[in-house]
Amino acid sequence: MGRAAWRVLVVGGLGYGLWRRRLGRLDRMPEDFGAYWIRRARRSGDVRYVALGDSLAQGLSARRPERGFVGLLADQLAASGELSVAVLNWSVTGATVGDVLADQLPRLRSLAGAAPDLVTVCVGTNDVARTDPERFEAQFRALCAGLPAGALVADLPDFRRGPRRAAAAEYGRICRAVLAEFPALVPVGIEHATRTMRRTELGVDLVHPGDRGHRRYASAFSAALAGSSAAP
Question: Of 11-15, 39-43, 150-154, which gets the smallest average pLDDT?
């Protein structure tokens, strides 16, 4: 075997080993990322930002949780106004719209006298395989009805390929139709933003966005915020 062939084998082996190590991190990500956001919630700030949703809002599978779109958006808020930002990320990996309704929305309501300056919602991808469309629509409408004015609410990302892409597109249309009933909320076009996402923008699991993909999400939320009157 020649040197060139050996070089290909060695480099390929190293790349595979790195991929395997990163893939092994996936099992620990939900716990590690969740622990990070619990610690992050202890920081005070001039602006209070609450994030609701699923693993996308948790930041999976960015290299670090703060590189997820919630962390990036918080950084953008801080930089634009030279302010410190307190982040309460109450999202949960695997959450459905029903879970947000039952567990996360009540926590938001409990803030009452200390209402957050910004709320983002990114949920629904797990519903595609678990919740029938009629129930999804009813639950998403109930969620929207419980959110404060100015909350930024995303539709679903483009599933790109696979057997559930058409179903995800239908659930995304449901999100946009329901959001049209709530003009006080701010729609975030995640489906449009992810339609041209490349494989290099995905995380190691090839499902969740990686660092580059989360930057797409953050840009979509930032653009929606800039175009609204909800900016802190």
Answer: 11-15
Range name among 1-10, 74-83, 99-108, 160-169 with the lowest pLDDT average: 1-10
In 3D, which of 154, 182, 140, 183 has the Cα closest to residue 69?
154
Query: How is residue 202 annotated by DSSP?
Result: B
The predicted structure's pLDDT at residue 14: 39
Q: Which structure tokens are listed for 75?
A: 């950084």
47-53, strands of its sheet edge to edge: 85-89, 47-53, 118-122, 152-154, 186-188
Q: How far is CA 1 from CA 5, 13, 15, 24, 72, in A?
A: 6, 16, 20, 32, 48
The DSSP call for residue 148 is P
- Residues with Cβ within 8 Å of 122's Cβ and at least 6 positions away in sequence, in order, are 51, 52, 53, 54, 56, 57, 69, 91, 154, 188, 190, 217
Which pLDDT band, with edges at 50, 70 and 90, does 232 fall under? confident
**119 neighbors 108 (Cβ within 8 angstroms):** yes
Domains of the chain by range and CATH? 29-226 (3.40.50.1110)
pLDDT at position 144: 98
The pLDDT, as a whole number, for residue 206 is 81
| Residue 202 backbone phi and psi in degrees, to 5 | -90, 160
